[in-house]
Fold:
Amino acid sequence: MATEKTLKARSPRGFADRSAADIRATEEMVAKIRAVYERYGFEPVETPLVEFTESLGKFLPDQDRPNEGVFSFRDEGDDDSSEWLSLRYDLTAPLARYVAQNYERLPKPYRSYRLGWVFRNEKPGPGRFRQFMQFDADTVGAASPAADAEMCMMMADVMEALGIKRGDYVIKVNNRKIWNGALDGLGIASAKHLTVLRAIDKYDRLQLGGVRELLGRGRKDESGDFTPGAGLEPETISEIERLLAAKEIDVLSGAKTNVNQLDVLEGSRLTVNQAYRTGLDEVRAIASHCVSAGYMTDRITIDPSVVRGLEYYTGAVFEAELLAEIPNEKGQPVVFGSVGGGGRYDGLVGRFMKENVPATGFSIGVSRLQAALSALGKLKTAVGSGPVVVLVMDKARTGDYQKMVADLRAAGIPAEMYLGDSGMRAQMKYADKRDAPLVVIQGGDEKAKGIVQVKDMREGKALAAGVADHETYREARLGQGEVPEGELVAAVTRMLGRAP
Amino acid sequence: MATEKTLKARSPRGFADRSAADIRATEEMVAKIRAVYERYGFEPVETPLVEFTESLGKFLPDQDRPNEGVFSFRDEGDDDSSEWLSLRYDLTAPLARYVAQNYERLPKPYRSYRLGWVFRNEKPGPGRFRQFMQFDADTVGAASPAADAEMCMMMADVMEALGIKRGDYVIKVNNRKIWNGALDGLGIASAKHLTVLRAIDKYDRLQLGGVRELLGRGRKDESGDFTPGAGLEPETISEIERLLAAKEIDVLSGAKTNVNQLDVLEGSRLTVNQAYRTGLDEVRAIASHCVSAGYMTDRITIDPSVVRGLEYYTGAVFEAELLAEIPNEKGQPVVFGSVGGGGRYDGLVGRFMKENVPATGFSIGVSRLQAALSALGKLKTAVGSGPVVVLVMDKARTGDYQKMVADLRAAGIPAEMYLGDSGMRAQMKYADKRDAPLVVIQGGDEKAKGIVQVKDMREGKALAAGVADHETYREARLGQGEVPEGELVAAVTRMLGRAP
Structure:
């Protein structure tokens, strides 16, 4: 194949390759999450990665420029017609399209889960990719707060299934209607609502002081960049702070209960506003379901600072937050924060139908959660997870080596014959890179004696890594060494600790 | 959420949604394929769905028009620069980029498998999608025919792991160099090679007669469309037919052996051509490895009509073919044909490096193979695979129902409370749609007596579908009916035949 120039091997920024360890860790996580979703009666469904751009709609936060946020391209039809297609930016907008398209056929309420890649045409950064994985669960066709409560309880169960201890995470609940009503009730112009909500959304990162600046004149960050504020009056800011005070009640310590949080929200003069009242009633109903099932308040709590960025939410909003401190890129321990979220989007399916269809859901950021679990040491790979490697000591005898490999494979043991063109030293190095548990060697001397050498590669590695003691590999050490040719499979089986 | 108009819920042509049954069937298949790949010592790796367009190169067949074949879009950088990105059209071109980028770090030879979606911007048709799934295995850095032989043996093992009986499939081997050498040796101009190879590639569909027409003046198909031929002289066509005669030796019947096929190729006057000789030697070496391991000729055979469409192949080419007859869209039994293929692409990694890196691989068309297995009845879903559904008989008592569901889930039993707003009849219909194995009912009468009703939904369904006899559900039938409230979990566990 003639090529004019040598290309540089590179990937577009924000698109990452995944190693075997990454993939296996994701699979382990995903299996645990799926088991919880299935226990809650959700069933899988998948939509394609490409949709009509108009089907997806424009619900991403901070989309000030056209063409920002999604990857789009034109689809040329046969008849010179063309339409815009986009890579999906989440798994919710495609679900709405799917449900509308299959409405008559689907059971209602329709409970589904969906795992897949989503794409954001944004500036990538550390831990921020343009292709990342989400794992969502949604109930479409149920207006009941019981459906929202179930989402929150299920996410709590997911966190625990992943090995995150109770108290090291929290599922936070709020309702968009509370803030919509509050801002209206405070006489804040609609045009300013988004700026105010974005300020509130930054509570966890900037604390009350930072939010206060953003609600007022503005805030200068450490780098000296200035973010203009919403320009609210001091008394308006105070009223917002009074609502946020509910957040400050540390429910996880057990000192207080959610009743107090509801009391704070209930005590506001804003309860005269209809939307505010409705939002509060819905939060109370969700809390009540969670109390019945025993999930309140050690796993699920009310938090008025939860806003969520996507614009399609219409009522309840949730967020799953890790409270454990995890070292950041600079090695400083920081609270990891959000690993997923969701809420009620009663208008999204209705974009495709004459009637509105209530819906609620939760999305887990798999890639992000995996980074957290990995930092917490919850995802470990065993030493020696590669295949048994049969070395090629005599190139004229590859048929014999091939036969050994075939016998091992037939016994269900991952095995391979070295396929390169190098000496024993390079072959041993290869076996080490492959994380081979055992290496099988048969040179001329061994062949003459009718034996093979089986060498254990794990013990030294595991001891060096400090992940096992000598006892772990006792069986293997006893088996190591010369083995009669005909007993290779039995010896390897025993050394790997497999059932024969 | 105000929308001006109601959108039509639709997907772009060639992009399909996948149901729970589809997804589960794919998972079952993929797990079986993965187990074989791992047994052969291959490890997983994943590349992103988006690559630089130039990294992918142009190797798709029939790409006469620009922008054809791949989905591409521009990536606007921060500095007004922009580059073309594309959705990957296969899993081989991205692997070449990945290996070149990580060359020093990777074990060599590098054996990997990759599962993922690929995209073709082509005209979709029945069973032909623009997004489909492939599951590839590749060995990069091994020039040895043993690596090619291993690919073929592994694919034979994959077919059998999927339940396809020996004799119902065949792995065919050929070598591009044979045809390159043959066409050169026959004095056919390079410009005509592609037309000739495409004609040969159609052998399975059109038989010898059709190929002969396409090599000569051309061929009119059933619809009356005329395909111009390569315009070869009759004696040149005869020579090509002599090579194709090797294909006609029915190795699977056991009547002949591959030696005969090699004899046919060896007997040609074209052996004076260097490329032809090299190709023949490589095929012989692959065959010899397969003979040693006992895979020849009942599973792997030589077939000179195998060409493969992708342009990056440089030597050996393989194809996995299902020989079983499967009803087509019109209900006529037809040989299903190719479900995967591959070959040696020694130039692809070299596009990114100063040196050439030998490589060989195999790609399984997961979506296509799944269609075949499904038609062959190899993928079946059990009746009653949905969750236990707890009906809401009294809306004031959802707390009690929620509690029952929580108890069942805590015992690991998929369960849900009905979340809609309908009467008992609709709820039973819902449970049926969800394929619920059992339904739990507690109205006022039952509550007063301290019992719940557990109803089995599977028996009637299974008997109607003819997939089980009465004996299968004996346990469940005995358990069906009234159960003391406190024994709900135990009763459901027993009825589902789960370990308590």
User: Anything to note?
Assistant: The radius of gyration of chain A is 29 Å. Residues 20-375 of chain A form a domain with the BirA Bifunctional Protein; domain 2 fold (CATH 3.30.930.10).
